[in-house]
Design goal:
The chain is mainly alpha-helical. The chain contains 2 helices and 2 strands. α1 packs across α2. The radius of gyration is 12 Å and the shape is globular.
Length: 65
């Protein structure tokens, strides 16, 4: 596995993600991103589909990242 930076528009949420994020949860993620920045990576597969970090992706896009 390698770490790299990719454009946020090049990745997609996992349509089979079992975990849903309500507005309250997304607000908490947005607040955390504003206060601390992104501290852990969004994990994607070779096709650019999110394997871990779907909520972070949604919150980051809502912040205009």
């Amino acid at each position: 596995m390698k770490t790299e930076t990719v454009p946020i528009d090049s990745i997609s949420p996992d349509p089979a993600n079992a975990r849903s994020h309500g507005e309250r949860n997304l607000e908490a993620i947005r607040d955390s991103l504003r206060a601390f920045g992104q501290q852990k990576p969004i994990v994607i597969n070779e096709d650019g589909v999110v394997m871990a970090g779907n909520g972070t992706l949604v919150a980051a896009r809502q912040l205009g990242w």
